[in-house]
Amino acid sequence: MPSINFDSIFGTSDSLAAAVSMESFLLCSCLSLVLGVACAGIYMFRNDYSKSFAVTLALLPLIVQAVIMLVNGNLGAGVAVMGVFSLVRFRSIPGSAKDIGSVFFAMAIGLATGMGYLGFAVLFTIVVGAANFLLVLSPFGKSRQPSKILHITVPEDLSFDGIFDETLRFFTSEFELLQVQTASMGSLYQLEYRIRLRKKGMEKDLIDQLRCLNGNLRISLGCASGAKDSL
Questions:
Q1: Number of CB atoms found within 10 A of residue 156's CB
Q2: Over the stretch 67-111, which tens digit does the pLDDT of each residue have?
């Protein structure tokens, strides 16, 4: 099996400044762009995305590569670039966990190509891409039934303490009474539960059973603001 050369095409890292030829720069730039497009494709696999973010991911390795080439071996320039990047403030909407991970992925590719480790950059992209496909297609990290918020309206003359517990134990794997509040000038009570159904498709049966207990008053069941896809 032929071995992959992971040496930098710019020479050893001991040199104070790497002599980058036009041919080397174009080779690294082309590879950065190709791997950037691959990075964007990996990000778009079974994920909601915008074109502007996908294009940015495709170009990010090329941009990082250029910065690394400019500061390679120059301590003063490196400190200056760090100072400039420290002034950056992200004023846009916070991204999801996959957005942030993809940005770091693209930056890692740019760091590798900027240092001239082209073989490492290619292999790194293949490994991360394959791992991403396998993990997305596998049940790894798949959550249980999502939490839901259940609102039950009861008349003021109904003793609601524990009256719904038996029904909720049958249809849910867990439930919790979050709050009780009055409504309609105190003539009604509204109970708010956080529940997790045992399986999908049990919403109608659950509501039908609860209607028999609360005098057929208003019942609502909706999604809860559960786990967020962010870091």
A1: 12
A2: 888 776 565 665 566 555 555 544 455 567 788 888 889 988 988
